[in-house]
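Z., the sequence and structure:
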Amino acid sequence: MPAVGAIMADWGADVVKIEGPSGDPVRRSVVSKEYARPISLVFEVNNRGKKSVVLDLGTAAGKAAMETLLQSADVFVTNYRQQVLQDLHLTPEEVHARHPHVVIGMISGYGDKGPEKYTPGFDVTAFWARSGLDSTRFPKGGEPPRDILGVGDNTTGLALLSGVLAALRHRDKTGKGQIVKTSLLRSALFANNWATSVELTSSKSTVPRPRSEASNCLQNSYKAKDGRNFWLVQAADKKWPDLCKVSVSKDGVFLFKTRSHRTDCPTPRVGNGRSLQHGPSARQECQAPHRHARCRVCPAALVVLVLQGIRLLFYLFFFIY
């Protein structure tokens, strides 16, 4: 959520961060002592460019100061749960009753409706785990790795920011502020919509498979001679000659000469001196002397080519006659 204000500050907005008397807990997270004073770089990167004020919203003085800020504010962004906002009289309805011009942005863990609207949500629990996004990062039966904190917060912050900007345009035309809401869970489901749509509409599983089970050697990860891993993604046919030029050894042998070579050879050679770990079986068996690539088309691909040719002749027949 802090990402919303940070980006607004980057764009020149006057952003005020409101903290309680004990301060934002993130100030004490991942503290570096390499500077003149202990500093949390995690806190700084997400709160850059902001002003900060300490308010005890449980007191009359704190509430009065908050009302003063809202009077001149264009946007009010909060990730407080609904119960807390009700206790502080800062629900969207109450704020709009007093300040109808303010655009209100709200982030929650699981949305503002349903049995979990009051449930606290965190980056790891609501964004990664509950959405199922975590399960896309390791094969079936494996253990989930530790999540990188802040990914869900920042992604959801971008979603809220886009809605806030649209609401500001609406206010320019009508003079009325709107309420913009999103959640960590909603943002994660959108980010993972490829896998989610497949799982919900078919019986196909989107659980990741090991690289050894990939169906295409041209879209897989490999390890170079220096020990670093890299991805090979050959999506366009027009790039095939370029791939052949860098994938042959000095004696002109293609990276994967035969099917058994692809599956059994531990370190196929590459023209620039790198070596690759063995890859999975591919749909094509290719041999490519340097600068003159020749591909042996598999039977399935040949059938497809024949059918496409028949289809083309069919269209030509009706076009001529």
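The longest strand covers residues 103-108. Residues 211-300 form one domain.

Let me know what you think.
H.
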